[in-house]
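Revision sheet: structure tokens.
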Amino acid sequence: MARILLLHSMYGLRPAVHDAAERLRAAGHEVHVPDLFDGRVVDDAEAGAKIREEIGRDELLRRAVTAAAPLSDQGLVYAGFSLGGALAQNLALADDKARGLLLFHGTSDLADDASTEVPAQLHVADPDTFEPVDWVNAWYLRMRRAGADVEIFRYRGAGHLFTDPALPDHDAESADRAWKIALDFLADL
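Predicted:
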């Protein structure tokens, strides 16, 4: 069983995020799902980007750190969707007790001197306008150089947020495959 902090995308804490948390709980994991947007939920990227910009990246990271702090003493798996994935990565790389990093649809840059042994898994559309192939390839190399045990799973023809059934990006086959692989990853931690 893993203790997981699951962070939402720039669409907010949508039903798909709650469904993901329930899927993880059904597999025996303890899951915490903070609301970084103060209850605001949107259906399109433009509105989500507006909220993200209004709150600001530093404040979003502060909110994520605040959510993780009381849970991290026993080692967390940091997970997230798109923006939440980027935040999860930042938290995991800063936490020497992190047990894993599970990213759906999003990554973040990392410092040249980053160092981590965290097992990491990324599920990303191929191609993805928010996570271009060149970026993902470079991210993989930087994560490996930092010491992470990292795997990337690409989903050809899927949209950016392909795991959310209420969004136009949804791809049921890709989502099912991603969840199977992710649950196996978590079971092995």
